[in-house]
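Check the record.
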Amino acid sequence: MPESTHAVPAAGGAEDRATYAYANKIGRIVFLSLEDVAGEDNMRAILSAARLHDRLEKQPPNDFERGFAFDELGRMQRALVELYGPLAGRRLARRMGRVSFRLGARDLRPVLGVADLVFRILPLRTRLRVGFEVLAQMFERFSDQSVELEENEEYFRWVMTRCGVCWGRRSDGPCCDLMVGLLQEAVRWLSGGAQFFIEESSCIAAGESTCTILIGKQPVVGGEPGED
């Protein structure tokens, strides 16, 4: 999946590119996940390739100010593909997403008011729906990322009309692998270890109007039956 090194003009112009951001706490989780999957030395190489030299020594603080720009995350994700190639870069991004969810679930759970027991007593499909709603609310509350939840008989649809993962990127196909990995780990946690079909079907970086990730409603490996 070749990816251009040239930024894509973002809707809203240069001012929006500079101001759309995640809370610093989310940015810190992203940096911790990158260090976890790539190691400290490789992380420095990735940040250098992403032209994020100021982040080499000054990572986002652990607060809720929106100071981690979409453009930073987009450049970081593009650097993974440039340095490691499309396949390995995508695998690293998905691993980052899975680690990010684990770190975020631990760090943000008290803020979101999520209780394990509440999820465990719900039927699986309802548990997934409620979990996606809580996760979407987290992004709406602590970032400028815009998420809409849809569903049909076969899939839940995680629809991002404004996406920081592919911000400023141009790709021949879907490239929001960090978010795919995050949702993979979210579903694994919500379902008690089951695996589900999860793939991105459209991407703004590939010229589509939304970044849409499909999550199957029936587990493919392990877990509980999906019927309410």
